[in-house]
Specification:
It is a single chain. The chain is 20% helix and 32% strand.
């Protein structure tokens, strides 16, 4: 069992439903494997070779299923993000809609699809207990020890229960805004550092860290970076950008039982990890995610003036 779980376990596929796999040349091999594991009538649309996609999608019923399996190249560079989104169905689509994490390797996808549902919802419940305004300490055996104040918590749909619903698969994350200026302490990154972009320009391409990367945080800002080759390069690039690019803005928690891949979109979704988002993509043009394992969250006493 593995790829068959996409439709059967997470999309509640009925025997009479049809399945449409929307893919591209980069992901066509994996899409073909998925089709072999689906017993329902199933067709593949390769966006590199087909143009009348919207017409096909508009003909589907609410019990049918559309699975979007794309590469970052097609989604961003070839403009597929104009029609498809991880968080919203295409306009006018009645069918069920499952968006698969961009560029996720087959092994990680299978691991994620095998995640017990009770673990997903247990983690969501655990994190949701920290209400907006909660003052939280995040620590880890690797040395993370940071206190911050949380804003609103959000997540997306992780399974399709009824006709016409959508999901982002495999189960991704639950995350909260970090109230500006409240983060103080140390973050020790011992899994993955993501890409560092500044207004669309790639400044640094990282991945699984060679040594733990230590981020010192004061009043919400990264004030120092240390640790190995990744840490040295990140410090040089990050401190070469405006100060607001070093602002801690997000605390997220993964929901799928997967192994690290070095792909930040996958690794930030690993159950048993948390990730911090640094820089606001809208205001500073930068957003960097860093992932650490085995975090412990504790609610601290809120200090009032």
């Amino acid at each position: 069992m593995g790829l068959d779980l996409l439709a059967e376990k997470w999309c509640n596929l009925s025997p009479s439903s049809t399945v449409t796999l929307v893919t591209d040349g980069d992901r066509l091999e994996l899409a073909t494997k998925i089709r072999r594991h689906i017993s329902n009538p199933c067709s593949i649309i390769d966006l590199w070779n087909k143009r009348d996609v919207e017409q096909h999608l508009s003909s589907l019923s609410s019990s049918d299923l559309v699975v979007v399996l794309l590469s970052v190249h097609t989604f961003v560079d070839k403009g597929a993000n104009g029609l498809f989104s991880p968080f919203a169905k295409p306009k006018g689509l009645k069918a069920k809609y499952a968006f698969v994490r961009l560029d996720i390797p087959e092994e990680a996808l299978v691991e994620g699809l095998r995640t017990p549902k009770d673990l997903v919802y247990k983690k969501i419940l655990e994190v949701s207990k920290f209400s907006p305004g909660s003052r939280v300490r995040v620590s880890s055996d690797a040395g993370t020890d940071v206190v911050l104040e949380l804003g609103n918590t959000s997540t997306c749909r992780h399974e399709i229960v009824a006709d016409g619903e959508m999901a982002f698969l495999p189960p991704s994350e639950i995350f909260a805004e970090v109230i500006p200026g409240t983060a103080n302490g140390r973050i020790v990154v011992d899994v993955t550092c993501g890409q560092l972009y500044h207004f669309g320009v790639l400044m640094g391409q990282y991945g699984i860290v060679d040594k733990p990367v230590v981020l010192d945080v004061e009043d919400g800002y990264i004030i120092d970076v240390q640790g190995g080759r990744v840490g040295e390069d990140l410090r040089e690039k990050l401190f070469g950008l405006p100060r607001d690019c070093r602002f801690v803005v997000e605390l997220g928690h993964g929901l799928s039982t997967m192994s690290p891949t070095g792909i930040i979109g996958v690794d930030e979704s690993i159950l048993g990890t948390c990730h911090f988002g640094i820089g606001d993509a809208v205001t500073s043009g930068t957003h960097l995610d860093v992932v650490l394992k085995n975090p412990v969250l504790e609610k601290m006493e809120t200090i009032h003036d």
